[in-house]
Design goal:
Elements lengths: L1 H24 L3 H26 L4 H28 L14 H5 L10
């Protein structure tokens, strides 16, 4: 069982480390935001799972902490993305077009209806 706990903790720590490298190396806000959310959330899950397996007491608290991280990290990333989209001076380069621009700029566009 100690080997499983060690592997989970090392892989989780490696994911968090790689996310930190991604935040430093990526150039634009959206790439950094992605790196700061996806890998650390999975890394925290693996580290929390290792802790739940290894510890006899405190399992509910550790599981609750992992659930809170799993819920709040993507929500916070989404809110940062929305704020960055609306901010002046942030370059948004999209290949397929910008469907959100009409909603943000005009405010009257119906996404489900005809243009």
């Amino acid at each position: 069982m100690d080997v499983v706990v060690g592997i989970l903790a090392i892989v989780g720590g490696a994911l968090v480390l790689l996310a930190g490298v991604g935040v430093l190396r990526f150039e634009d806000l959206y790439s950094r935001m992605h790196a700061a959310t996806k890998a650390p959330t999975l890394g925290a899950l693996l580290i929390g799972l290792a802790g739940v397996i290894a510890l006899d007491s405190g399992r509910p608290k550790l599981a609750l902490a992992v659930v809170i991280i799993f819920v709040t990290a993507p929500v916070a990333s989404h809110m940062v993305g929305r704020a960055a989209y609306r901010a002046e001076g942030i370059d948004v380069r999209l290949e397929a077009g910008d469907a959100l621009a009409d909603l943000v700029d005009g405010g009257d566009a119906d996404p489900g209806g005809p243009p």
